[in-house]
């Protein structure tokens, strides 16, 4: 259900992007009549409304899962650090009989990395779909539309100046950059544990 909800949000962002592209590219090559202008305005308003709904769904998603995801992420960072520490501690003993223990700690550490990557990749996917709307709005021939439609599109483009991110617990953003930060923090915790043993 979690992944379905995410894909639904991404799909809504894609629909908004398509609506903007369709609204401008369909009516601009034709002569701008009152009917075409009205249809273009309706399509752009619909696209902006769809984008607003997708943003609202994303906010609802973050409110619903923020505490759970923050706790899981914290546990994964600690688990990865401890498993990495255990692996290097067993490996430094030079004992060939503990291969299964060292392998199990390495597998657990790998599972932690994979889980953190997937969770952050999902966040990056939502951010990319949101950014695609602004890229589409910028790339269409909005400058050939009537002035009041240009203003509507410019208001949409101005929303991009505010950074859109999926912030977990006010600590980090769920993105590939956030994943790199989690791995860096985990390795830092590991080095602290390794240096104090």
TrEMBL record:
Keywords: Cell membrane, Membrane, Olfaction, Receptor, Sensory transduction, Transducer, Transmembrane, Transmembrane helix
GO CC terms: plasma membrane
Pfam families in alphabetical order: 7tm_6 (PF02949)
InterPro entries per the UniProt record, alphabetical: 7tm6_olfct_rcpt (IPR004117)
GO BP terms: signal transduction
One function term, GO molecular function aspect: olfactory receptor activity
Source domain of life: Eukaryota
Subcellular location: Cell membrane
Membrane topology classification: Multi-pass membrane protein
Transmembrane segments: 61-85, 105-123
Protein name listed in UniProt: Odorant receptor
